[in-house]
Write a structure and sequence with these properties.
Length: about 400
């Protein structure tokens, strides 16, 4: 479950991390009132930030500065009228604008390969970390924190020194880094990211500086929400990607990607292999989707609707290994979904295992393209996507 920035900041604040003031507003009038209170407390400017569960808010016009309460009201009205990546903006965060001397990236995320918490830091804060990793991998420094002991002080100091932090600021960085990992550990988070972790002027000493968490992104493990009703209460279904919500309600593991080939697979390992082979064949996967074991026709049909809801999908690859999952049930679900779909997308299907012969007969009668191997299926899907895009 993704948290809005406002809730993520609140979680950090509860843990004692330095987070600036800020108020959430759901109308232009409320945004003006919030700005008035912030200006009264000494803010020179305020920033109005759209609260949506997607990235790219700034590029979409969802983050703007205001130099007066009246301007905050006008800007809030503009932002609340936006739809960013298909999600309407229903709330804005009004916060003091910071005078930033330096930006740092800091994040803690679950690392299953080490069975620990991966802590990453970079001096290239304020940028998408994927861009930094692609252009200069050495700019990202890492430590592995123990899932019970957390990030140890010497590890936090090492991270700070490697991103160029010294002196009094290093003490502050150590406290924030340790606290960030503690938030991840105690809130069952898959990801806790602060970008930027900003170095700003300090009012306490002339020429002094301090560290604050200016922006925060937190993703909570859905499997832990049953025991964390306090966090579950923050779920904003209206601001979720409709496909994510549909997938969760259907019990389908789904992650939207940026490619053009929709993938429906049973089993996470097989799904990852399918994505790899699509990429090797020259295509780009549009999603990770695992229908799980024992999926029946109605679940398959729901998965197909989720894939087709992504207008970027130009072809679909269905790869099923029948064990608990019956191939004929999958075939019936595909036939049902195609009868209901509002747009036609070329598809290739590979089904092996339990009731594969019955599935093949149903698919042949339905006019579906099939493949006998995963390599063939991936290559066919790539060709179909290119043909559809032409």
């Amino acid at each position: 479950m993704k948290l809005h920035e406002a809730e993520a900041r609140e979680l950090l604040r509860r843990a004692g991390l330095p987070v600036p003031d800020g108020e959430v507003a759901d109308s232009p009038v409320a945004a003006r009132a919030a700005a008035e209170r912030l200006f009264a407390r000494g803010a020179a400017k305020v920033v109005i930030k759209a609260q949506v569960l997607v990235g790219g808010r700034g590029k979409a016009g969802g983050v703007k500065l205001a130099d007066s309460p009246a301007a905050a009201e006008t800007i809030a009205a503009e932002i609340l009228a936006l739809t960013i990546k298909g999600l309407p903006v229903r709330r804005v965060l009004v916060a003091p604008a910071a005078e930033i001397n330096r930006e740092i990236y800091l994040a803690a995320l679950i690392d299953r390969s080490s069975r620990g918490i991966l802590v990453m830091a970079s001096a290239a804060g304020g940028m998408e970390i994927e861009e930094v990793a692609a252009k200069d991998p050495a700019a990202i420094v890492r430590e592995i924190a123990h899932p019970h002991a957390g990030l140890l002080p010497f590890q936090a100091r090492r991270l700070g020194l490697r991103v160029g932090i010294r002196g009094e600021l290093l003490k502050q960085f150590v406290a924030v880094a340790i606290g960030l990992v503690d938030v991840a550990r105690t809130s069952d988070a898959d990801l806790v990211e602060v970008n930027p972790l900003a170095v700003v002027p300090s009012n306490e000493t002339p020429g002094g500086e301090r560290i604050v968490c200016l922006d925060a992104k937190i993703t909570i493990d859905d499997s832990a929400l049953e025991r964390r009703p306090d966090l579950a209460a923050w779920r904003d279904e209206d601001s979720e990607d409709p496909a994510d919500r549909t997938a969760r309600e259907a019990g389908i593991a789904y992650i939207r990607l940026d490619g053009s080939i929709g993938c429906m697979v049973n089993g996470a390992g097989l799904a990852m292999t399918t994505l790899d082979l699509v990429t090797r064949a020259g295509g780009t996967p549009a999603n990770f989707l695992d229908i799980g074991g024992g999926a029946r026709a109605d679940k398959v049909a729901a998965a197909m609707r989720i894939i087709l809801a992504d207008v970027g999908v130009k072809a679909i690859l269905v790869n099923i290994f029948g064990g608990i999952t019956r191939g004929d049930e999958v075939a019936r679900g595909l036939i049902e979904a195609r009868a209901q779909q509002e747009r036609t997308v070329p598809m290739v299907v590979r089904i092996v295992g339990t009731n594969a012969r019955e599935a093949a007969e149903l698919l042949a009668a339905g006019g579906f393209a099939t493949a006998s191997s995963l390599d063939e299926a991936a290559e066919t899907a790539v060709a179909l996507a290119k043909g559809s895009a032409a």
